[in-house]
From TrEMBL:
Pfam families: Cnd1, Cnd1_N. GO terms for cellular component: condensed chromosome, centromeric region; condensin complex; cytoplasm; nucleus. InterPro entries: ARM-like (IPR011989), ARM-type_fold (IPR016024), CND1/NCAPD3 (IPR026971), Cnd1_C (IPR032682), Condensin_cplx_su1 (IPR007673), Condensin_cplx_su1_N (IPR024324). GO terms for molecular function: histone binding. The keyword Phosphoprotein applies. The gene is NCAPD2. Keywords: Cell cycle, Cell division, Chromosome, Cytoplasm, DNA condensation, Mitosis, Nucleus, Phosphoprotein. GO terms for biological process: cell division; meiotic chromosome condensation; mitotic chromosome condensation. The keyword Magnesium does not apply. This is Condensin complex subunit 1. It is found in: Chromosome; Cytoplasm; Nucleus.
Amino acid sequence: MSWDFVVPVSLDDLLKSGAINQYVVQDVLSPKQLPSHLTALRSQGPVLPPLFIILYFILHCRTVDLALKEDTLEGLSVSLPSLLMSGTLSAADRKQQLNAVKMSVFLLCKLTENLESDSCRESIVTAPSKGRKKEKASGKGLQQWDSERETVLQCLTQLLQLDIRSLWNLSLVEEEFVSCVTFCCYKLLENPTIGHMKNKPTRDAIIHVLGVMVKKYNHMLGACVKVIQLLQHFEQLSSVCAQAVSAWSSEYGVKAIVGEIMREIGQKTSDELAREGSGVKAFSSFLSELSTLVPEAMIPNISVLLTHLEGESASMRVAVCEVLGEVLVRVLSGDKLDDSGRADRDRFLDTLQEHIHDAHSHVRARVLQVYSRIVNSKALPLCRYTEVMELAVGRLGDKSVLVCKSAIQLLAAFIAHNPYSCKLSSVDLKKPLEKETAKLKEMRENMSEKAPVAVISAADLWAAMEPEVSHTVRSHLEAGSDAEREEDDEEEEEGVQDRSDRDTAIQIAQYLRHNKYRSSDCNFLPVQGPEENQASEPVASDQPPTPQKEGGKAADEGKENELKKQEMLVQYLKDTESFALQVERAIAVINNMLYWKTTTVVQEAVQFCVTAREFSVADSVCGVRKMLPLVWSTDAAVKDAVVQAYRRLYLNPQGDSTRAKAQTLVESLSELMVDASLGTIQCLEEIVSNCNENALQASVVQVLWERFSGKRETSALHKRAAVLLLGMAAREVVLSNLDTLCSVALGEKVTEDYLLARDTVITITNITDHQSKGVPFRLPVDHHLFSCLTQAIADGVVLSDPHWQTFMEQAIRLIYFLAESPDKLCARLLQRSARLLLEQVTEVCCVSLAQLLSLCGAVAFWQVSHLERSVSTELRRRRGEKEEKEEKEKGPVGKNKDANDSCVEEELGLTGASAEDTEAEFIRKICETELLADGNMLSVFLPLLVKVCSSPGRYSHTQLTTAACLALSQYMMISPTVCKDNIRLLFTVLEKSSLPVVRANTIIALGDLTVRFPNILEPWTPNLYARLCDENASVRLTAITVLTQLVLKDVMKVKGQVSEVAVLLLDPEPHITSLALNFFNELSAKDNAIYNLLPDIISRLSDPERGMKEEDFNTIMKQLFSYITKERQTESLVEKLCQRFRTAKTERQWADLAVSLSLLSMCERGFKKLQECWDCYSDKLAEDAVYQPLLSIMAKLRRRAKPQFKAQVEEFEKKLTVVHTKGLENVENEEREQQLEEQTHSEKAQTPLPKSARRPTRGNSLTYAFSHGLSA
């Protein structure tokens, strides 16, 4: 074989003549010749030129059938692995085999690419088709190609794993061959469905082929470049590419490829990433996915990615932060890190902490999520807990909802995985910390007192002093005369005789310790020579220590260890307290998030509160109780979150038996019921009804009965909780055991615990209130229950129990709910109470009289409610039964006649109206004429109420005045006549009373009267608004609450007095401020409500008599103008505010109007309206307070204006500036003069010239021109 096959770049290159001995396709078959030559494919083994021509034509011709291509591909796949011969080959055979391999691989790859393109094209074309036949046919072809695709890849893998490199000279495989195989694989990866789960075998096969090419055929650099290109153009391949790179690194050992790809991505500049578009997302997803697969391989090159943290691409910053987080969790965690690993860990954590404050909200959120993963994996060092916790708490105030949600999740992870304690309460930790700190201080003081001087061994001491001792000895021996030496010797001999050797040694040691070497030598030299001295000291130092010294040293070491342990304990308690304080700080913020409008944030806040409660964090109960009203939320997700939270905290009992579980459940619920308000009880009732466990119900009821009846010793609080829980869990049981309830809670000992009696009455009332429709359930007047109630109420009138009032109100309510003739029963009760009051006290007590008046008011109120609710309902029920009975008695003829009459009534809109009106008129007449008639018991107390309320000087007792005013307002609910007669008195009490509680109660009563008799109360509306300026905060709070309800329910018309509500936006009480803000938020939902009120509010607030500060006015207006969002409203307000400049009299009013204009979100139409109203405010522009706000309007308009409109704005701004600097009069004078000059000039131009001047002759033309030029 004298020719060589060179793998071409494209098919057409085979038709061109190339280098010497290069194979060229010369004979191209026609489509008719193709069938006769196809039989040779199966008979001939290797792909030689005749067969190659046939296969080349199949590739080259576009009209070849898809089935034929698939058959050809199958044949090539079968014959490909058998191409290589075994054993040694000659040069000619090797060349022939090499050509056959290259031809076969080339044909196989190109045919695969061709079929892949046809498959993708077919899937795109047939995707929108609706016909079943087309879908079936196309689906079958695609499915067949999917299976054949795997076969081709398996054949390629088998071939490449053989030793085909020996076919090439020096085993250097040519680049074209490698590119042919890899290009085919990358082409298959471009399939949009390659990432689907069904294509996993194909995907793995492609990765395997490319892995062989990377490892054996030097394709690493090419693979890096191609991966980058795929990520740039195919965003969906990010996960596939990450899996491929991970496999090449771990399975094939090509770890360098991870670093190469990371360097390629790291070298991308911000400008390049900005041009990439979807490629940036693919890069970030690729890095994130790769970090989860091979985090160890990314550490050596992670520095090249850190440059992107300073770039503009938020997606890349997110990816780098996720890579850092994955490395920290998977690699750089644990206590076995070396110094380098710790340094990297700290550096990465510092980087993450910096980006908690990233400019982009998505980055901030993802960093917090990364930290959540780190904390959940226990990979965060303990020393960083407090710091990161503080940063997370700060992010709770982020503007982004996603960041807030992520911050809550991180804080919950901190609590759930905290290394400190299962109970995080700074209050509980304070005492142990103080105790252990005092103990540590005491230990340190003891150690400082008993601490010995630093012990230095004798050998070390002698080594330090030996040079100076030797020098001193030599100088002593050499200096001085012999006579002096003799004298010294004599003196020393005398001294030596006087003392022993031990004394001498002690003195020498003292001299040496105090560096008195000369003195020591004087004592030392006569006794022994220098050599002996030098030898003796080390001998003494080398003596073994005594047992007493060893014991002392061991004791000292033990004390030091105890001191270190104590220091560690104190530090641990300090860290725990600091952590608990951060958690409590977070709770205060998250509790307010429970009522956000974003459902996901509310759900996360609920979960956080549950976690905090499980770890007994201080104030966590506040959050748990605060979420309770959310059980009424219209959002099903929020409601379900709250129900599940309470189920997890309180309704998931633990115990070995059913009895133990029931006791645990009752204990949990009793904690919630203690000191719970009525609203809390209703919320709990809803939750219990949603979480009713049938398996535990009988046991729970039994435990509750035991607690309530006193069979088990329990506290009064738990008794009350038990009876309330009985009403929630077992209504039928309670209703059938009324006698037991009466004997336990309403019997002889009722006066000892009115709270238990009250809660028992509430339980019975709620049970009867939930009765089904039909004949109402009522008990006879002589029932034991009513006897107990009336006895308890009457006896309590003459007592001074503070809880009698609430019991009495609930008892009267129950009487009107259950008794057959509640009016007669209550009349007897009033008569009995009054008699007891007069009999038992010689001088009427103010407290007893106040309680009697409260009883009268409660009876009056519930009497009216009984008539309008129960009696009216019963009348409608009886009327309905009567009509049904009449219809049954009537025959078919009567029915047809009635049907005709009813049709006429329906057309007139009178169906059922006449009967209901008659019933309403009947009840109204009873209230007007009978309730306060002379024979009725209620009428007896009305004059007394009026007298007490109208004589505050005489009846000055606080409780009496409060009760009388409240009872009078309840009497006024009976009829319009009573209301008209006493309305002036009630408003007088509202304005003149010195008691805040009386004023607050009166406001509530007047709110109810406004709902009942709106026409009577309408003239008194300004008096109600006036209470918004009350000096007492509780009165202002009550006023804003009542007025909000009246206005938002359209009971009271919104007028200019709303300006008083606007003033409360600056109230010093935060609760009042929030209510005022909520008022305007709700009012803005009504069409044009705030828009219509704004001009009047501005006029009232800018009134000089009010004297409001300029800063306060600006703050209020800024809030109110934020509700003006419509362009038409803005335009109209500009005109209205400009017109008010004419009526404004003071400079302050001008300034307020100008500021109001500047707060509007001005648009082009508003700007034109501002120009049209120039005459309204132009004469005020000399004032800076008017000029500056208008100038700020021009600045805002200029920022977002188009070129043409921007020119108009700038021109108008110049006009404003000129008028401000020169004054309007001077500018107008200048404009008039300019207009006169222009007019004069135009008149001269229009004046006709004389005839002699019109057509000058040639002789005088020069004179004409010169004269006119001078005049000009």
